[in-house]
Amino acid sequence: MKSLTNRSKVVSNKKMTFWERIYFPAILNGMGITFGHLFRRKTTVQYPEVKREFSDIYRGRHVLKRDDEGRERCTSCGLCAVACPAEAITMVSAERKPGEEHLYREEKYSAVYEIDMLRCIFCGDCEEACPKEAIFLTTELVKADYQRENFIYGKDVLVEPADPAKRIDVSKRQTPEVIEFKKDKRYKHNR
Amino acid sequence: MVTQIIYKTLLASFILVLSLVVAMYSTLIERKVAGWFQDRHGPNRAGPWGLLQPLADGIKLFFKEEFMPASADKFLYILGPSLTMFVALLTSAAIPWGPDLVINGVAYPLQVADVNIGILYVFAILSIGVYGIMIGGWASNNKYALLGAVRASSQMISYELAMSLSIITIVMMTGSLSLREIVAQQQGFNWNIIYQPLGFLIFLICAFAETNRSPFDLPECETELVGGYHTEYSSMKLGFYLFAEYINMFISGAVMATLFLGGYHFPGLDKLGLSPNVFAFVSFMVLFTKITFFGFIYMWIRWTLPRFRYDQLMKLGWKSLIPLAILNVVITGVVILLNQ
Q1: Distance in Å, alpha carbon of B173 to nearest chain A alpha carbon
Q2: Which of these, A36, A122, B78, B209, is most buried using a 10 Å CB contact count?
């Protein structure tokens, strides 16, 4: 029978030869292997001092982006919630009142936006579904907690700070298509 | 006479402290070596290079809860680890650690007791060692502990035979039971390992079994018996058991170096013309290096080989090692007879 991988080994119950039965050659061979490992480069990362770098497109906890003027980009369309395979996202939409133009970019916004981090599988489908460039996954980790309720992240955690210095950079996560799309000034939200 | 008594007391306490410190740091070295063999660093947080790790472990063990099973036999339960520790420390008395020190023209031997039946003493004490394990396992009133204890005792009996048989050849060659005499005859490069390679191999394998080290660590076999004979032990009682294992490693390394690797002798060392005390110190360091080498072998084997199955262990002991050891005795006898 042809094997699928080249890793399979033929197993046999043949009687061991004298050389094999005294075990010493095999033991010495094994000791040679372990001795070789003594001087190998260690794979340990000395954690608190050295942190392992995350990939630029690591899928950690989400962020709700603001635009350049500090207005929330999310328009509460619900496409992320639809796209979510784990059904982790829920939202309640609201209409923008006059005088709130500096807070929300579109006429509709989410008054409540919650992601259950215990349900979330960090697939990034929400990010892909979003037409407004509002939700992104970041390299930040979801912190451990003792209460299940604390894993439901609301807008207070998810929306990035308005202060330009504290914005979360997601430029590395944007695909070439997205960057190309952003250059198209025919669309209102690119202007 | 008084100075002799003071000197012996000092030497005995020095060796006691030495074995304890060596055992302490063996635990660190064991973990370090294990780490290196597995491409890790091993403990390196407590102090520089993890040098304070044994101290931290000791403090931890002392402060842990002293748990005793309600159905345990209280006296025997305490006697078990105490006996193991006591016996482990006792063996070092007969080992010659170096040539005589000379102070004010009086020679002071670097040996606590030059017993003329040194080998017998060492082996008698080693055999008592298993009682600590047996009593502890029995007194715990736990099936795993009992199984561990039963394994330890039968393993000890099986391997002690082959071990003693391999020693008989040394005694036949040397014509003496005194360890000092045996070392003296191996001066220069006249080491017993050259004349008794098979005996050395058998002794080495049996030493692994006697000290309950992997691949013969069936009495404590974590995978099958939880913790084996020390399942029910906690705090410093457990610490004593684990500690005794490392002391036993140190002592058995010393015994092996003494019997087979020329003790404190090193080729050409006695021709350097060193003053007696420096010579004694250097010789002691030579012996210590040999012991360290054996310690490393113990660890090397432990992190290389998987554990034997119990029937394999018994088969190896009774069907391979004992016949080989007897054969070795016969061959040695014939060669000695022909050379007369």
Answers
A1: 27
A2: B209
B167 phi/psi in degrees, rounded to 5: -75, -30
- The stretch B81-87 carries a mean pLDDT of 89
DSSP character string of A44-71 = ---TTTS-PPPPTT---SEEE-B-TTS-
- Assess contact for B306 and B215: CB atoms under 8 A: yes
Per-residue pLDDT tens over the stretch B163-202? 888 888 888 888 888 888 888 888 777 788 888 888 888 8
The 10s digit of each residue's pLDDT in A154-170 is 998 889 888 888 888 88
Residue A175 has pLDDT above 90, yes or no: no
Find, among B268, B243, B254, B325, the residue nearest to B27 by Cα. B243
List CB contacts of B208: < 8 A, sequence separation 6 or more.
B214, B215, B216, B298, B301
Stretch A53-66: mean pLDDT: 86
CB B247 within 8 A of CB B88: yes
B38 part of contact set with chain A, CB < 8 Å: yes
Which of A31, A38, A44 lies nearest to residue B41, judging by beta carbons?
A44
Global pTM value: 0.77
- Taking the domains of chain B in order of start, what are their residue ranges? 67-339
Of B36, B301, B305, the CB nearest to A38: B36
Query: Which chain A residues contact residue B35 at CB under 8 A?
Result: 42
Give which of B168, B152, B162 is closest to B207, Cα–Cα: B162
Indicate yes or no: CB of A44 within 8 angstroms of CB of B40. yes
Q: Do A37 and B36 touch (CB under 8 A)?
A: yes
Average pLDDT in chain B: 85
d(CA B165, CA B173): 13
**pLDDT per position as a tens digit, B3-17:** 888 888 888 888 888
Kindly determine whether residue B37 and residue A43, on different chains, have CB atoms separated by under 8 Å. Answer: no
pLDDT of B25 strictly over 80: yes
| Residue A191: band (very low, low, confident or very high) from pLDDT cuts 50, 70, 90 | low
Q: Which two tokens stand for residue A114?
A: 């919650």
Residue B305 in contact with partner chain A when CB distance is under 8 A: yes
Nearest chain B CA: its distance from A59 CA (Å): 28
Instruction: State residue A189's pLDDT score.
Output: 59
Whether the Cβ atoms of residue B83 and residue B131 lie closer than 8 Å to each other: yes
C-alpha to C-alpha distance for A98 and B96, rounded to whole angstroms: 97
CB pairs < 8 Å spanning A and B: 33
Give the whole-angstrom CA distance, residue B22 versus residue B27.
9
pLDDT tens digit sequence for B102-156: 777 777 777 777 778 888 888 888 888 888 888 888 888 888 888 888 888 888 8
CA distance A22 to chain B (A): 9
Residue of B nearest to A49 (CA): B45
Mutation for A interface: B305, B309, B315, most A CBs within 10 A: B305
Ordered by where they begin, the domains of chain A are 62-190 (3.30.70.3270)
Distance in Å, alpha carbon of B40 to nearest chain A alpha carbon: 5
